[in-house]
Each structure stands twice: as structure tokens, then as C-alpha cells.
Amino acid sequence: MCLAMPMKVVEINEDEGIGELGGVRRKVSFQLLDKVEIGNYVLVHAGFAIAVVDEDDARETIDAMDEACIDG
Questions:
Q1: Which of 3.40.50.20, 2.30.30.140, 3.40.50.2300, 3.40.50.300 is the CATH number of 5-69?
Q2: Which residues of 39-63 are buried (b: 16+ CB within 10 A; e: fewer)?
């Protein structure tokens, strides 16, 4: 199974930058996308941003992942 995670772009340095999810920051390659801006949400798979996504859709996915990971 493959899984892409929505991450918020917090830093850009040419074809790579930093994405953040849940307070965790990771290096992300933007080589596969034409235009990425700080504040965008991108789907990240294997370290590569594969799509820019709407903020509301990204937050909905993040909320669903948080809910699924709560011990109860």
C-alpha cells in the first residue's frame, strides 16, 4: 500500500524545501511540481511532493488521520 501525506510547505530552497505535519518537519523535493509557494499544502510520497492540494481537503485528511490514531 502506498500512502501520500498532506504537508504544509514552510520553507523553499529551489527544487526542495521543508514540509510540516503535526509539528514534524521533513525535507521535501518539489521537482515534480511546477509551482509551490510557502503556505501551500502538498501531498508527499517518498519525500517527493506529488500534488498541491486545497487547504480544506488537507485539513480534513489530517483530522481523519488524527482520529484514526487516537487510542481509545
A1: 2.30.30.140
A2: ebbbbbeeebbeebbeeeebeebbe
